[in-house]
Amino acid sequence: MKLFDSTNLYYILFAVLTYIIVGLAFYLVVEHVIYQEVEDRLTVERRDFENFIQTHGMWDESCYFVENKIELDTAGNLPATYAVFKDTLLYNRYSNEYVPFREHSFISTIGKTQYKVSIRKSLIESIKLLQSITGTMLIVLSIGLLLLFLFQRRIARTIWEPFYATLASAKAFDLNEGRGLALRKEKIFEFNELNSVLRKMTDKIARDYMSLKEFTENAAHEIQTPLALINSRVEELIQQSNFTDEQMRWIQNIHESSIRLSRLHQALLLLSKIDNGQFFEHTAIDFHKRITTKLQELEEFIAHKSLTVTVTPQASFEVEMNPALADILVTNLLTNAIRHNLPNGRIDITITATTVAVANTGAPLTTDPDRLFERFKKQRQSSASLGLGLAIVKKICDNYPLDIHYHYDNSLHTLTLHKTT
C-alpha cells in the first residue's frame, strides 16, 4: 500500500470513529436537554396542581388541558416522599398506536386521603425535534468531513508531488549514463535534503561504476595478453626434446597453471560484468533448444564417461534474458553434471513450464549444501574445477526472474531452476 493511501486510510478510520462518537454524544446531550426541559415543565405542573389542591381542597380536571394526562390513584403503601420520573406508553385512540410520554409520579394529600398523582406529557414533538436536530447535525458534519477529506487529499498530493518526482527519477536512473540523478531544487526542506543526498550518492555510485568498468576492461585486455604469451611460449617449450623428465614435468605444471589462471581470469571477469550489468540484450530463450544444442556439443565428454542422458520436455520453459548468459547458464549446469558424475552414470533433465531440473548420479557431498553456490566452493579442493561454475549460475539467476535450488535424494544430485514471476 502506498504511503499516501495508508495515511488516508488512517485518516478515514479516525474520522469515522470520531463521527460516530460525536454523533452519539450529541444525541445523548440533546436528549438529556430535552428530557430536562420536559421534566421542568412537569415539575411546574406539579406545583400548579399542589397549589390548586391547597386552595380548593379538591381536584377539578377541568382546569387542566386533557393532553397533560393527570391521573389520580390510591397511594397504597407508597411513602409521602415518593416522586419519580419515567417513560411510559399510552394508547392513542386517534392513531390507533401507542405513543411515548414522560411521566412524573408523586404523593399528594387531597382532603384526608393520599393519592398517587401521575402527570404525563407527550414526547412525540420532543422526539421529532431530537431526530431533526441530530439528523441535521450529522448531515452537516458529514459534509464537513467530506470537504475536509477532499481538501486534505488535494493538499497531500501537492505536498508529496516532489517525492514522487524524485522516485520517478530514481527508477529511471541508469548507471551506464555515467552520471548521477539530475534533481530539481524543492521548496520543502526535507525533500530538498533528500534530493541533495541522492544527488551526492548517485554521483559517487556512477563514478565508482565507471571506474570499475574501466578497470574490468583494462584487466581483460592487459592480463589476457601476457597469459596468452605465456601459454604459447610454454607450448613451444613442450615441443622441444632437450629437457629432462623433471624439467618437462615443471614445464607441464607451468602450462597447466597458466591455463587454469586464464580460466580463472575469464570466470572472475564474467562475474564482474554480470555484477556491473554489462549484458544489455534480452530475448526469449527456449531452454529445451539450448540444452539440446549444448548436449550435442558435449557429446565427447559424455561418451568419455559413458553417461546416459535422458531429456524429458513436459512443457516449454522460456525466460527473457541475455543469450550469452543463457548459454553460460546451460553450459555450467551440464558440465557440472558431467564433471561430478560417476563412470557409467546418468543425467536426467526434466523441463516443465516453470522449472528445469538437471539431476546426475554422484558421490554424496562432503561440503555444506547451503554453501554450494559460494565462490571457490567445490567438492574436493584438489579438483581441477575452479569452484566458480555454480557461483556464476547463481549470479545469473539473481539478475533474472530465476531461482536455483540443490537437492540430493536416492543417489541423485539435482539442481533445479525455478521461475520466480
Automatic annotation (TrEMBL):
The keyword Zinc does not apply. SUPFAM superfamilies: ATPase domain of HSP90 chaperone/DNA topoisomerase II/histidine kinase, Homodimeric domain of signal transducing histidine kinase. One of its GO terms (molecular function) is phosphorelay sensor kinase activity. It holds the Pfam family HisKA. Residues 218-396 form the Histidine kinase domain. Keywords: Kinase, Membrane, Phosphoprotein, Transferase, Transmembrane, Transmembrane helix. Its EC number is 2.7.13.3. GO terms for cellular component: plasma membrane. It catalyses: ATP + protein L-histidine = ADP + protein N-phospho-L-histidine. SMART domains: HATPase_c, HisKA. The chain crosses the membrane at residues 9-30, 129-151. This is histidine kinase. It comes from Dawidia cretensis.
